[in-house]
Amino acid sequence: MIKAADQFHTQTTRPNEMWQTDFTYFKIIGWGWMYLSTVLDDYSRYIIAWKLCTTMKAEDVTETLDMALTASGCEHAHVKHRPRLLSDNGPSYIAEELVDYLGKTGMDHVRGAPFHPQTRARSNAGTRP
């Protein structure tokens, strides 16, 4: 249960204001580990894009973000602000490749604190092995 004091103070008020991204991973017997990269709209809770990957590299994140920008229409729309990206502090989310990509696309990046309600309780990822 989240207490009122634990609620995050910057709640989204419209679609495409902030996107959450994360990897969910699982083991497929006989194949090995697979990683599901997702981009979820914080406001609508709708998964905008997803990609099944064999790695969890920054390149996988940028490819999923490319798909999300296309699917949402934000790729070609003339908007005042691109969606902010919320992620954890995993290696693919702190990589220089992602920093460069976000700079080119005009997206701001927010990294959540461990166990913060906005990244933990509302995360699109399930439990991890």
UniProtKB/TrEMBL annotation:
Domain Integrase catalytic residue range list: 11-129
InterPro entries, A to Z: Integrase_cat-core (IPR001584), RNaseH-like_sf (IPR012337), RNaseH_sf (IPR036397), Transposase_IS3/IS150/IS904 (IPR050900)
Source organism, top-level taxon: Bacteria
Pfam family, one: rve
PANTHER family hit by this protein: TRANSPOSASE INSF FOR INSERTION SEQUENCE IS3B-RELATED, TRANSPOSASE INSO FOR INSERTION SEQUENCE ELEMENT IS911B-RELATED
Protein name: Integrase catalytic domain-containing protein
Organism: Erythrobacter westpacificensis
Source species taxonomy: Bacteria, Pseudomonadati, Pseudomonadota, Alphaproteobacteria, Sphingomonadales
